[in-house]
Amino acid sequence: MKKIDMHAHFFPRITREEAAALDADNAPWLAVDSDGESGHIMAGDRRFRPVYRALWDPALRIEEMDRNGLDMQIVCATPIMFGYGYDASAAATWARRMNDLALEHCAYRPQRLKALAQVPLQDLDLACIEASRARESGHVGVQIGNHLGPHDLDDERLVRFLVHCANNDIPVLVHPWDMMTDGRMKKWMLPWLVSMPAETQLGILSLILSGAFERIPETLKLCFAHGGGGFAFLLGRAENAWHCRDIVRQDCPQPPSHYLKRFSVDSAVFDDRSLRLLVEVMGADHVMLGSDYPFPLGEQEIGKLVANSPNLDETDRARILAGNAMRFFGLTG
Protein backbone atom coordinates (compact mmCIF):
# COMPACT_ATOMS: atom_id res chain seq x y z
CA MET A 1 0.00 0.00 0.00
CA LYS A 2 1.36 3.43 -0.98
CA LYS A 3 2.79 5.53 1.87
CA ILE A 4 3.46 9.28 1.94
CA ASP A 5 4.92 10.87 5.06
CA MET A 6 3.79 14.51 4.97
CA HIS A 7 5.45 15.68 8.19
CA ALA A 8 9.24 15.28 8.21
CA HIS A 9 12.00 17.77 8.91
CA PHE A 10 15.32 18.76 7.41
CA PHE A 11 18.11 21.14 8.34
CA PRO A 12 20.66 22.14 5.70
CA ARG A 13 24.36 21.87 6.40
CA ILE A 14 24.91 25.60 6.91
CA THR A 15 27.88 27.04 8.76
CA ARG A 16 27.92 29.57 11.52
CA GLU A 17 29.33 32.08 9.07
CA GLU A 18 26.31 31.61 6.83
CA ALA A 19 23.94 31.90 9.79
CA ALA A 20 25.64 35.16 10.81
CA ALA A 21 23.94 36.82 7.85
CA LEU A 22 20.75 36.52 9.89
CA ASP A 23 22.21 36.98 13.38
CA ALA A 24 25.80 36.46 14.48
CA ASP A 25 24.84 35.62 18.06
CA ASN A 26 21.76 33.39 17.93
CA ALA A 27 20.91 32.23 14.41
CA PRO A 28 20.74 28.46 13.91
CA TRP A 29 23.48 26.51 12.15
CA LEU A 30 24.71 22.93 11.97
CA ALA A 31 27.78 21.63 13.77
CA VAL A 32 28.64 18.22 12.30
CA ASP A 33 30.90 15.88 14.27
CA SER A 34 34.16 14.63 12.80
CA ASP A 35 32.59 11.27 11.91
CA GLY A 36 30.07 13.03 9.69
CA GLU A 37 27.26 10.92 11.15
CA SER A 38 26.00 13.09 13.97
CA GLY A 39 26.09 16.64 15.22
CA HIS A 40 24.09 19.42 16.83
CA ILE A 41 21.77 22.14 15.69
CA MET A 42 23.32 25.20 17.24
CA ALA A 43 21.84 28.56 18.23
CA GLY A 44 24.91 30.73 18.22
CA ASP A 45 27.21 29.14 20.82
CA ARG A 46 24.40 27.13 22.41
CA ARG A 47 23.67 23.50 21.60
CA PHE A 48 19.98 23.32 20.73
CA ARG A 49 19.45 19.69 19.73
CA PRO A 50 21.52 16.59 18.94
CA VAL A 51 20.82 15.29 15.43
CA TYR A 52 22.09 12.72 12.97
CA ARG A 53 22.94 12.62 9.29
CA ALA A 54 19.47 11.90 7.91
CA LEU A 55 18.50 15.47 8.81
CA TRP A 56 20.80 16.92 6.16
CA ASP A 57 21.79 14.00 3.92
CA PRO A 58 19.12 13.03 1.36
CA ALA A 59 20.95 9.79 0.48
CA LEU A 60 20.53 8.45 4.02
CA ARG A 61 16.99 9.79 4.10
CA ILE A 62 16.12 7.74 1.02
CA GLU A 63 17.75 4.64 2.53
CA GLU A 64 15.63 5.00 5.66
CA MET A 65 12.52 5.70 3.60
CA ASP A 66 13.14 2.43 1.78
CA ARG A 67 13.45 0.58 5.09
CA ASN A 68 10.12 2.06 6.16
CA GLY A 69 8.44 1.33 2.85
CA LEU A 70 7.82 5.01 2.14
CA ASP A 71 7.08 6.08 -1.41
CA MET A 72 7.40 9.80 -0.70
CA GLN A 73 8.30 12.20 2.07
CA ILE A 74 7.46 15.88 2.35
CA VAL A 75 10.17 17.76 4.22
CA CYS A 76 9.93 21.07 6.02
CA ALA A 77 12.14 23.33 8.09
CA THR A 78 13.06 22.45 11.66
CA PRO A 79 11.09 25.22 13.45
CA ILE A 80 14.20 26.88 14.90
CA MET A 81 14.87 27.92 11.29
CA PHE A 82 11.74 30.14 11.10
CA GLY A 83 13.49 33.40 12.04
CA TYR A 84 10.31 35.19 13.06
CA GLY A 85 12.08 37.32 15.66
CA TYR A 86 14.44 39.02 13.23
CA ASP A 87 14.22 42.02 10.94
CA ALA A 88 11.70 41.18 8.23
CA SER A 89 14.00 41.95 5.32
CA ALA A 90 16.78 39.78 6.73
CA ALA A 91 14.27 37.04 7.52
CA ALA A 92 12.94 37.16 3.95
CA THR A 93 16.44 36.68 2.54
CA TRP A 94 17.02 33.86 5.03
CA ALA A 95 13.73 32.14 4.14
CA ARG A 96 14.50 32.34 0.44
CA ARG A 97 17.93 30.78 1.02
CA MET A 98 16.52 28.00 3.23
CA ASN A 99 13.80 27.28 0.67
CA ASP A 100 16.33 27.01 -2.14
CA LEU A 101 18.35 24.60 0.00
CA ALA A 102 15.23 22.55 0.66
CA LEU A 103 14.74 22.14 -3.09
CA GLU A 104 18.39 21.14 -3.45
CA HIS A 105 17.83 18.51 -0.77
CA CYS A 106 14.79 17.16 -2.63
CA ALA A 107 16.55 17.23 -6.01
CA TYR A 108 18.42 14.07 -4.96
CA ARG A 109 15.22 12.11 -5.66
CA PRO A 110 12.66 14.62 -6.92
CA GLN A 111 9.92 12.04 -7.39
CA ARG A 112 10.22 10.89 -3.79
CA LEU A 113 11.15 14.05 -1.90
CA LYS A 114 9.02 17.19 -1.84
CA ALA A 115 9.40 20.36 0.21
CA LEU A 116 7.31 22.82 2.17
CA ALA A 117 8.61 26.38 2.27
CA GLN A 118 9.13 28.71 5.20
CA VAL A 119 8.17 32.39 5.05
CA PRO A 120 9.02 35.60 6.95
CA LEU A 121 5.69 35.58 8.74
CA GLN A 122 6.44 38.80 10.63
CA ASP A 123 5.79 40.77 7.42
CA LEU A 124 2.56 39.95 5.60
CA ASP A 125 3.61 41.23 2.20
CA LEU A 126 7.02 39.55 2.27
CA ALA A 127 5.46 36.32 3.53
CA CYS A 128 2.93 36.28 0.69
CA ILE A 129 5.64 37.05 -1.88
CA GLU A 130 7.87 34.22 -0.67
CA ALA A 131 4.99 31.75 -0.38
CA SER A 132 4.04 32.40 -3.99
CA ARG A 133 7.65 32.34 -5.22
CA ALA A 134 8.29 29.07 -3.44
CA ARG A 135 5.13 27.51 -4.83
CA GLU A 136 6.16 28.49 -8.36
CA SER A 137 9.69 27.17 -7.83
CA GLY A 138 8.56 23.70 -6.84
CA HIS A 139 7.48 23.64 -3.19
CA VAL A 140 4.21 21.84 -2.60
CA GLY A 141 3.10 24.23 0.16
CA VAL A 142 4.30 26.20 3.17
CA GLN A 143 4.91 25.48 6.83
CA ILE A 144 4.24 28.16 9.43
CA GLY A 145 4.47 28.32 13.20
CA ASN A 146 1.26 28.34 15.23
CA HIS A 147 1.83 31.85 16.53
CA LEU A 148 3.88 34.98 15.92
CA GLY A 149 5.16 36.24 19.26
CA PRO A 150 2.03 37.08 21.30
CA HIS A 151 -0.23 36.82 18.24
CA ASP A 152 -2.17 33.62 17.61
CA LEU A 153 -3.52 32.49 14.25
CA ASP A 154 -6.60 34.68 14.61
CA ASP A 155 -4.38 37.79 14.30
CA GLU A 156 -5.58 39.74 11.29
CA ARG A 157 -2.19 39.62 9.55
CA LEU A 158 -2.00 35.86 9.89
CA VAL A 159 -5.59 35.47 8.73
CA ARG A 160 -4.75 37.53 5.65
CA PHE A 161 -1.77 35.28 4.97
CA LEU A 162 -4.04 32.23 5.14
CA VAL A 163 -6.46 33.97 2.77
CA HIS A 164 -3.56 34.52 0.35
CA CYS A 165 -2.71 30.83 0.53
CA ALA A 166 -6.34 29.87 -0.06
CA ASN A 167 -6.60 32.15 -3.08
CA ASN A 168 -3.34 30.86 -4.57
CA ASP A 169 -3.72 27.13 -3.90
CA ILE A 170 -0.86 26.99 -1.40
CA PRO A 171 -1.37 24.20 1.16
CA VAL A 172 -0.37 25.13 4.73
CA LEU A 173 1.07 22.98 7.51
CA VAL A 174 0.89 24.60 10.95
CA HIS A 175 3.61 23.41 13.30
CA PRO A 176 3.97 24.26 17.02
CA TRP A 177 7.12 26.09 18.01
CA ASP A 178 8.56 28.29 20.76
CA MET A 179 6.43 26.40 23.25
CA MET A 180 4.71 28.09 26.16
CA THR A 181 6.60 27.73 29.40
CA ASP A 182 7.30 29.88 32.44
CA GLY A 183 10.21 27.78 33.61
CA ARG A 184 8.24 25.04 35.38
CA MET A 185 8.68 22.54 32.53
CA LYS A 186 12.44 22.36 32.72
CA LYS A 187 13.12 18.60 32.60
CA TRP A 188 12.05 15.38 30.90
CA MET A 189 11.25 17.20 27.64
CA LEU A 190 8.04 18.49 29.18
CA PRO A 191 7.81 21.48 26.81
CA TRP A 192 7.60 18.94 23.97
CA LEU A 193 5.25 16.61 25.85
CA VAL A 194 2.89 19.22 27.32
CA SER A 195 3.33 22.56 25.61
CA MET A 196 3.67 21.32 22.03
CA PRO A 197 0.23 19.63 21.99
CA ALA A 198 -1.24 22.61 23.84
CA GLU A 199 0.19 25.07 21.32
CA THR A 200 -1.33 23.04 18.49
CA GLN A 201 -4.77 22.95 20.07
CA LEU A 202 -4.48 26.67 20.79
CA GLY A 203 -3.86 27.35 17.11
CA ILE A 204 -6.94 25.40 16.06
CA LEU A 205 -9.27 26.93 18.63
CA SER A 206 -7.99 30.45 17.95
CA LEU A 207 -9.18 30.09 14.36
CA ILE A 208 -12.51 28.55 15.38
CA LEU A 209 -13.60 30.66 18.35
CA SER A 210 -12.40 33.98 16.93
CA GLY A 211 -14.58 33.54 13.86
CA ALA A 212 -11.48 33.58 11.64
CA PHE A 213 -12.72 30.59 9.65
CA GLU A 214 -15.69 32.73 8.61
CA ARG A 215 -13.25 35.10 6.89
CA ILE A 216 -11.03 32.46 5.28
CA PRO A 217 -12.15 30.81 2.02
CA GLU A 218 -13.17 27.19 2.39
CA THR A 219 -10.68 26.38 -0.37
CA LEU A 220 -7.79 26.73 2.10
CA LYS A 221 -5.89 23.47 2.54
CA LEU A 222 -4.84 23.60 6.17
CA CYS A 223 -3.22 20.88 8.28
CA PHE A 224 -2.09 20.86 11.91
CA ALA A 225 0.87 18.72 12.96
CA HIS A 226 1.09 16.29 15.88
CA GLY A 227 -2.44 15.00 15.52
CA GLY A 228 -3.87 18.43 16.28
CA GLY A 229 -2.46 18.24 19.79
CA GLY A 230 -5.19 17.71 22.37
CA PHE A 231 -7.96 19.03 20.12
CA ALA A 232 -9.74 15.74 19.38
CA PHE A 233 -9.77 14.66 23.03
CA LEU A 234 -10.92 18.08 24.27
CA LEU A 235 -13.40 18.98 21.53
CA GLY A 236 -16.26 18.04 23.85
CA ARG A 237 -14.99 20.55 26.40
CA ALA A 238 -14.92 23.33 23.80
CA GLU A 239 -18.34 22.28 22.47
CA ASN A 240 -19.87 22.36 25.94
CA ALA A 241 -18.32 25.76 26.63
CA TRP A 242 -19.71 27.18 23.37
CA HIS A 243 -23.24 26.10 24.28
CA CYS A 244 -23.05 27.16 27.94
CA ARG A 245 -21.08 30.42 27.93
CA ASP A 246 -21.84 33.42 25.72
CA ILE A 247 -18.29 34.71 26.19
CA VAL A 248 -17.03 31.59 24.35
CA ARG A 249 -19.41 31.91 21.39
CA GLN A 250 -19.47 35.71 21.12
CA ASP A 251 -17.30 35.74 17.96
CA CYS A 252 -18.07 32.25 16.67
CA PRO A 253 -21.45 31.73 14.98
CA GLN A 254 -21.26 27.92 14.93
CA PRO A 255 -20.21 25.34 17.54
CA PRO A 256 -16.61 24.10 17.22
CA SER A 257 -17.63 20.79 15.68
CA HIS A 258 -19.05 22.69 12.70
CA TYR A 259 -15.50 23.52 11.56
CA LEU A 260 -14.03 20.03 11.57
CA LYS A 261 -13.94 19.84 7.78
CA ARG A 262 -11.98 23.08 7.50
CA PHE A 263 -8.65 21.48 8.42
CA SER A 264 -6.74 18.23 8.58
CA VAL A 265 -4.27 16.76 11.06
CA ASP A 266 -1.39 14.32 10.82
CA SER A 267 -1.33 10.87 12.40
CA ALA A 268 1.55 11.41 14.84
CA VAL A 269 -0.26 10.27 17.99
CA PHE A 270 1.68 7.02 18.66
CA ASP A 271 -1.17 5.05 20.21
CA ASP A 272 -3.96 3.11 18.50
CA ARG A 273 -6.60 4.32 20.96
CA SER A 274 -5.62 7.90 20.20
CA LEU A 275 -5.65 7.22 16.47
CA ARG A 276 -9.13 5.69 16.72
CA LEU A 277 -10.45 8.80 18.49
CA LEU A 278 -8.68 11.08 16.04
CA VAL A 279 -10.25 9.36 13.04
CA GLU A 280 -13.67 9.28 14.71
CA VAL A 281 -13.52 13.02 15.39
CA MET A 282 -11.83 14.30 12.25
CA GLY A 283 -12.96 11.69 9.73
CA ALA A 284 -10.57 9.40 7.86
CA ASP A 285 -10.44 11.87 4.96
CA HIS A 286 -8.88 14.55 7.21
CA VAL A 287 -5.98 12.57 8.71
CA MET A 288 -2.64 12.16 6.91
CA LEU A 289 0.40 10.07 7.71
CA GLY A 290 2.99 12.20 9.51
CA SER A 291 6.03 11.02 11.43
CA ASP A 292 8.05 14.03 12.67
CA TYR A 293 11.10 12.22 11.22
CA PRO A 294 14.03 12.15 11.94
CA PHE A 295 13.65 13.17 15.57
CA PRO A 296 13.51 10.78 18.56
CA LEU A 297 9.97 11.84 19.49
CA GLY A 298 8.74 10.95 16.00
CA GLU A 299 7.28 7.65 14.85
CA GLN A 300 10.23 5.27 14.69
CA GLU A 301 8.64 2.81 12.24
CA ILE A 302 6.92 5.25 9.95
CA GLY A 303 3.36 4.25 9.12
CA LYS A 304 3.26 1.24 11.42
CA LEU A 305 0.52 2.67 13.63
CA VAL A 306 -1.82 3.30 10.70
CA ALA A 307 -0.87 0.15 8.79
CA ASN A 308 -1.52 -2.12 11.80
CA SER A 309 -4.56 -0.42 13.29
CA PRO A 310 -7.44 -2.88 13.71
CA ASN A 311 -9.89 0.02 13.74
CA LEU A 312 -9.37 1.05 10.11
CA ASP A 313 -10.81 -0.60 7.05
CA GLU A 314 -8.61 -0.85 3.97
CA THR A 315 -10.21 2.14 2.28
CA ASP A 316 -9.57 4.45 5.24
CA ARG A 317 -6.11 3.00 5.75
CA ALA A 318 -5.20 3.82 2.14
CA ARG A 319 -6.57 7.34 2.52
CA ILE A 320 -4.51 8.07 5.62
CA LEU A 321 -1.32 6.46 4.36
CA ALA A 322 -1.26 8.29 1.02
CA GLY A 323 -4.54 9.21 -0.63
CA ASN A 324 -5.34 12.23 1.52
CA ALA A 325 -1.84 13.68 1.09
CA MET A 326 -2.01 13.23 -2.68
CA ARG A 327 -5.25 15.18 -2.77
CA PHE A 328 -4.17 17.80 -0.23
CA PHE A 329 -0.87 18.62 -1.92
CA GLY A 330 -1.95 17.92 -5.50
CA LEU A 331 0.57 15.11 -5.92
CA THR A 332 0.64 12.67 -8.81
CA GLY A 333 2.13 9.24 -9.33
Report on this structure.
By secondary structure, this protein is of the alpha/beta class. The chain has one domain (87-106, 116-329): Metal-dependent hydrolases (TIM Barrel, Alpha-Beta Barrel). Helix content is 39%, strand content 17%. It contains eleven helices and 13 strands. The strands form three sheets. It has an eight-stranded parallel beta sheet with strand order 1-5-6-7-10-11-12-13. A hairpin with a 2-residue loop joins strand 3 (38-43) and strand 4. Helix 3 (88-106) runs parallel beside helix 4 and helix 4 (124-137) packs parallel to helix 5. The chain is globular and about 60 Å long. The two termini are 13 Å apart. The relative contact order is 0.13. The model has no long low-confidence stretch (mean pLDDT 96).
Q: In what range is the share of β-strand residues?
A: 15-25%
What name is given to the CATH topology?
TIM Barrel
Number of domains as seen in the coordinates: 1
What is the CA-based Rg, rounded? 19 Å
Q: Identify the overall geometry.
A: globular
Largest sheet: 8 strands, parallel
**Strand count:** 13
Kindly report how far apart the N and C termini lie: 13 Å
CATH class: Alpha Beta
SS content category: alpha/beta
Task: Say which CATH homologous superfamily is assigned.
Answer: Metal-dependent hydrolases
Instruction: Note the run of SSEs as H and E.
Output: EHEEEHEHEHEEEHEHEHHEHEHH
Low-confidence stretches: none
The average pLDDT is 96
Helical content band: 25-40%
CATH architecture: Alpha-Beta Barrel
What's the arrangement of strands in the largest beta sheet?
1-5-6-7-10-11-12-13
Number of helices: 11
